Structure prediction request, 342 residues.
Amino acid sequence: MGIRKIAQIAGVSVSTVSRVLNGTKPVSDDLRERVEQAIQDVGYVPDYVARSMVLKKSFTVGVIMPNTSELYHQAIFYSIEKVLDQYGYKALLCLVKDPDDAQHQNNESGYLEVLVKSRTDGIIMMHESSRPEIYSRLHDNTIPMVQCNIDIRNIGYPQVRIDDFAAAYDGTSYLLGLGHTNIGVISTVSYSMAEKRIGGYRKALADHGIQFDKHRIIYSEDGPAYTRVSFGAGKAAMRQLLDTTKGVTAVFVMSDEMAVGAFQAVREAGLSIPHDISILGFDGIELGAFTNPQLTSIEQPIGQLGTIAAKKLMAMISGNTIEQDEILRYQLRVRSSCRNIS
Prediction:
């Protein structure tokens, strides 16, 4: 049973069937579903090994991301998968464990070794490595790579991200505009993005004539890195902030998931949101609309981050010239977890 019969059953052209099987060009969801249903109906089994040999492609993309419970990263991965599927590619998910743990120091290198040996066609990097040799290894093997939501300079790979410094500056300015001058921060120490967000926070304070106090920043340092952006980490950090810092009226939590944990710590302390403490999150995940009160947050274009990164990588694999970096727009999603005290 050949592709001509599949095309006849699906009511499409032979070239459309070929595009679905070979991933040479994107195909609409409707056409793809019709072709895949016809393939299933006739029991056709493509020879992927032969296809890879002829086209000199593996039709796989490695997606390297931190091994966290973050809903944020999961949402980005979903959007990446959706684009790859349109091109006939499959994602090989590589979850990098805690780089500070001696047991997992070679975790990144191990994944990279597998991806290189399996001749993956490209990599989307969502994990920020502290080891420069990781990136030079990719250069040596001429594997295309796109940085998604990370900002590693001078390695020659394109980026898709937001301006974290500006986003944190705007978030802090929003709280200052509501009359809050004693603003705490809950952050993670794992990535340079955290440093940029702290930088934006400090700049906003300075521009409003408010002295920076390092004691108002609590880092979610407990446990391995992959648990530092979680409900539990946010709850523990908020408890510490309430125990050690007096007079804080607002807290800027650099992850919505941690912000949800912070909500619980505030309530367990006998306080209310936003009457006693305003909470501002960061990321804009769907969960923020279901908290009580609903979470005000810096909303990243989560779907766009994954979609653009995947399309950029597909263009690189095809040998097309691409725009090096894309800095996407964020927005302040005002809900009800912050109040005006001025």
About this structure: The chain is about 45% helix and 15% strand. The radius of gyration is 23 Å.
